[in-house]
Amino acid sequence: MEYIEKDKDIFERTLIEALASGTGPDIALLPQDLVLRHSDKTYPIPYESMSARSFKDRFIEEGEVYLNESGILALPFIIDPMVMYWNRDLFSSSGLSSPPSFWDEFYTIAPLMTLKDDDSNITRSTISFGEFSNVTHAKDIISLLIMQAGNPIIIEDSLSRSGYRAVLSERFNYEIAPTDSALRFYTEFSNPTKESYSWNRSLPSSLNMFTAGNLAVYFGYASELSEIKRKNPHLNFDVASVPQARDAIRKVTFGRMDGLAILKSSKNISAAFRAATLLSDAKFISALADEFSLPPVRRDLLAKKPVDAFRFLFYDAAIVSRGWLDPSPRDTEIIFKNMIERIVSREAKISTAVSSANGEMEKLLNKLRAVER
User: Checking DSSP bridges between strand 321-322 and strand 253-262, what pairing results, if any?
Assistant: First the structure.
């Protein structure tokens, strides 16, 4: 078995060119947000080969985005959950002993921790919510809030033209539509008329603001731990779970997952399935997780918590990680950006911006199906 690494920026083009020339690989390690986009090129693993029950018993819940009517789109391989990094010095100097566990606590602490100069320019921020372009992982953070509110963003729908349906604007029997509620909270912190005002588009990226010691909390991935340490070795920070809504029934964070997808170009589908199964067994996944200091995607391995303080929290985050099948990452990035900017600029009401975004995502899904055919 030969493994070839490809740069993420040219991965799609390289894969398509290889398939077109008949030299495509047997298995590709596909990021979760590319699985749906390339579903026409992958071979779904039949449930006769691995049952849905066996899959659910083996892998974390986020992996279930790979299950559909035709089979298993990919086997979970890597999970990188979102966590909350927090500046211990900033919290201590504000008289706070620990970071928030619930989102509504930010309404109270933002006025305490955010500092402005004589011209009302923000010099120290509590939370980097409200804008898009200078918020690192903005789309993922917004997705997290929407899913926490009770909206899965995209669902499988056999009656839909595309086989999937965008549900960003649906209410799901809530009094307030979950996406509307999530975006109202997110945009609150960029409103200068609010006491919780803590962020604007003139500030540096949230990652740079945090590593400079001027942002109290940063929402990033477990894999960013070493980068944060490298950028500022003297930064006194810690890691905590992503806050939840106070009335939440279950905990949720966002996770980036990579899966082992068998390609239709494989000359031996059975051998490719055996290789993918081998690569996702406990021994290999455990070694992989240790190598990259990430939590494993397997339930049996997550039951054995590490002693390392950071990885202990990463394991907890992996258990509650969720995600969604993105029809086109670059396009949905633009859709989410436009949605936020229309709300912040007051060009559109929240519900109107959400409805428009939902329509654009539905077009992407239908476009995928047209390409498949």
Answer: parallel
What token pair was written down for 78?
Answer: 């890597």
CA dihedral 296, 164, 243, 106 (to 10 degrees): 150
Which helix (H) or strand (E) covers residue 219, if one does?
Answer: strand 217-221
Residues linked to residue 79 through DSSP beta bridges, in sequence order: 257
At 20 the pLDDT is 45
Contact 213, 113 (CB under 8 A): no
Domains and their CATH numbers in the chain: 8-79+255-306 (3.40.190.10), 136-188+331-373 (no CATH)
Reported pTM? 0.93
Distances (CA, A) of 369 to 37, 265, 335, 336, 364: 9, 20, 19, 22, 9
The pLDDT value recorded for residue 8 is 57
- State the DSSP code for 6: -
Low-confidence ranges of the chain (pLDDT < 50): 1, 3, 17-18, 20-21, 370-373
- For the chain, what percent of residues have pLDDT higher than 70? 92
CA–chain centroid gap for 265, Å, is 29
Q: Are 262 and 77 in contact (CB under 8 A)?
A: no
Instruction: Please state, in angstroms and as integers, the Cα–Cα distance from residue 144 to each residue in 66, 189, 331, following that order.
Output: 18, 17, 18
Q: Residue 199 in 3-state DSSP? A: coil
Helix ranges (DSSP H) in the chain: 8-20, 32-35, 52-58, 88-93, 105-113, 138-149, 178-188, 206-211, 225-231, 269-279, 282-292, 299-302, 309-319, 329-344, 350-372
DSSP conformational letter for 66: G
Strands 67-68 and 164-166: unpaired
